[in-house]
Amino acid sequence: MSLASADEAELLARAFDYPYAAPDGAYLFRAGEALPLPDGYDLAGRLPVLAHGSNRAPAQLLRKFGREGHGGEKLGPEGELPVTPVWLTGYDVVFSAQFALYGALPATLHPSPGTRVRVHVTWLTEAQREIMDRSEGLAAATPRYRLLPLPGCVACDLSGDLPDAPAYLALTGALAPDGAPVAFTSVRAEGRRFEAMDGRAMIARIAREVFQCEAEALIRRIVGNMEERDRATALLERLALKP
Predict the structure, then answer these.
(1) What is the pLDDT of residues 80-93, one digit of tens each?
(2) Which residues span the domain enclosing 195?
(3) Could you tell me which residues come within 8 angstroms of residue 69 by beta carbon, excluding any fewer than 6 positions away?
(4) Which of 5, 36, 100, 185 has an alpha carbon 20 to 30 Å from 57's alpha carbon atom?
(5) Is 69 exposed, middle or buried (0-12, 13-18, 19+ CB in 10 A)?
(6) Residues 98-108, mean pLDDT to the nearest whole number
(7) For position 124, which CATH number holds?
(8) Within its chain, how far is the Cα of 182 from the centroid?
(9) Who's near 75: CB < 8 A, 6+ residues apart?
(10) Mean pLDDT throughout 139-147?
(11) H or E element: which one contains 16?
(12) Of residues 105 and 32, more confidently modeled
């Protein structure tokens, strides 16, 4: 495979494979790796933030925080970030009505009575929270996310219930091509009410139905081109459902 082919394959995989692989259980992100979380790990003083999309994945945390000696100092003097699994009741993890800079259709949460989903919590220091906020564009001139308390039951395996734990929610709302949100097949759910698809299939569907092109062509068009990305997102917002 040529370098150009490898680069294109990586570009497409980052869009199609979202929200990326993540351990089902608790782990400690340290030195760029997902390590077992030690028994009795002290979470005191850290801020729990729901991670229902790619923020639960070690690959995405590596992009945001780096590894020790290569930008990993952004994790702070602790040098680590604990991530724990939780059950979230009353919501589902669905595609948002926007494209990420790297071409994915990122996740948001949408109310779904009777549903519970298996997501994660990132336990952040104040400094780590600031980095995460910046990575989600909260301070952008036109922000696409807000960090909002999430009314509902968040049951953490290690620390019990987390009332009103905050989550980064897409201001565009949920993508609803047929009038209802579409959930992620990669997110485990009980009592799911919405249709579910993976990222590749959903992008292919949107490319075909909205943009009349192949998924690969759509990704090539919008990645690295802010104007094209914004135009594409504006079309998706016509198909959005606000939470």
Answers:
(1) 999 999 999 999 99
(2) 3-241
(3) none
(4) 5
(5) exposed
(6) 97
(7) 3.10.490.10
(8) 15
(9) 29, 30, 65, 68, 81, 128
(10) 90
(11) helix 3-16
(12) 105
